[in-house]
Specification:
Order of helices and strands: HEEEEHHHEEEEEEEE
Number of strands: 12
Shape: elongated
Strand content: 25-35%
Helix content: 40-55%
CATH superfamily of the largest domain: Efflux pump adaptor protein, beta barrel domain
Number of domains: 2
CATH class of the largest domain: Mainly Beta
CATH topology of the largest domain: Elongation Factor Tu (Ef-tu), domain 3
Length: 326
């Protein structure tokens, strides 16, 4: 009996020594803090256009996949806009084709005016010769000169019309400015029609959802937030004296107060360039006579990795973080 008691005491001493050694070595191999809180990459969800909500496809806290419909806006005004833009584009193309036909007519008028000028020059030369010989009066020469002036003016007008219409003619009517402008308006109308269907930009979980059918929403106004899947992280606020040895890439273990006993793996992603108080609205002013030195805390972001699918962690929850230094 005495021997068993003696061996039991030896075992207790060894266990106490091992525990003490582990407690003494732990600060050298890891850093631990319970001043840590869960965060996540979040995506504000908003419509790109104004409109009235006709249907909401998701529920609060539901899981959605990338590209999954979230809600819809009334698309009837935008369908009308698309039809109007299509008609405007067709009219612009028709006008571009008419410009080609008008240019051909203007060029034909210029050719005809050139021919009439040739005839007027011949009549003037003939009248001038007959007047010189005394067969006709000088009035006939004046009339021929007047007719030549009229035909010359007509040719100049025809050439001016050719130049004017020529600026509106393009070998490719799709490059015509009016056609390109109408095509751009059609594309914008089609985009607005597409924007009536709001889909998830990434996989995640819906939160802070209050949107209902019938609500009038404004463009780019956040309606709810999508917490990205596998986008969870923890901000661990270590004391400034605990920072030496901590660097990005180190492995970490995270335990949430809301999920006791469950351990999550993480990786040190970054270390803040300043203390949490340094970036507050009213940072502390230590240059006073009543200054008391207190240990400051520096946020260390730990990205959670290898989370099981559909894992939902409470954002803002308290956590305990242990960073392995080696």
């Amino acid at each position: 009996m005495k021997t068993s008691v003696k061996w039991g005491m030896y075992a207790l001493i060894v266990a106490a020594a091992a525990g003490g050694y582990h407690w003494w070595q732990q600060p050298r191999t890891s850093r631990t803090t319970d001043n840590a809180y869960v965060g996540a990459d979040s995506i504000p969800v908003a419509a790109r256009i104004d409109g009235r909500v006709t249907m909401v496809h998701v529920k609060p806290n539901s899981q959605v996949a990338a590209g999954q419909p979230l809600f819809e806006l009334d698309d009837r005004p935008h369908r009308v806009s698309v039809e109007r833009a299509q008609a405007k584009l067709a009219q612009a193309r028709l006008s571009a084709r008419e410009a080609v036909a008008e240019l051909a007519a203007a060029q034909a008028d210029a050719k005809r005016a050139e021919h009439l000028i040739e005839q007027a020059n011949l009549r003037l030369a003939r009248a001038t010769e007959l007047a010189r010989q005394g067969f006709i009066s000088s009035q006939a020469t004046d009339d021929a000169q007047s007719q030549l002036s009229v035909e010359t003016a007509s040719l100049e007008a025809a050439r001016a019309r050719v130049r004017r219409v020529g600026t509106q003619v393009y070998a490719d009517i799709e490059k015509h400015p009016a056609v390109m402008h109408a095509a751009a308006e059609l594309q914008q109308a089609q985009l607005d029609l597409e924007y009536t269907q709001v889909a998830a930009p990434a996989s995640g979980r819906v939160t802070n959802l209050r949107l209902t059918a019938g609500t009038q929403v404004q463009a780019n106004a956040t309606q709810f937030v999508l917490v990205a899947a596998n986008g969870y992280w923890v901000d661990a606020n270590f004391k400034e004296g605990e920072l030496p040895g901590i660097r990005p890439g180190q492995r970490a273990r995270v335990e949430l107060d809301a999920m006791p006993g469950r351990i999550f793996d993480g990786t040190v992603e970054s270390i803040s360039p300043g203390t949490g108080a340094a970036f507050s609205l009213l940072p502390p002013q230590n240059a006073t006579g009543n200054w008391v030195k207190t240990a400051q805390r520096v946020p260390v972001r730990v990205r959670l990795v290898d989370l099981p699918p559909d894992t939902a962690l409470p954002i803002g929850a308290s956590a305990t973080v242990q960073v392995a230094l080696h």
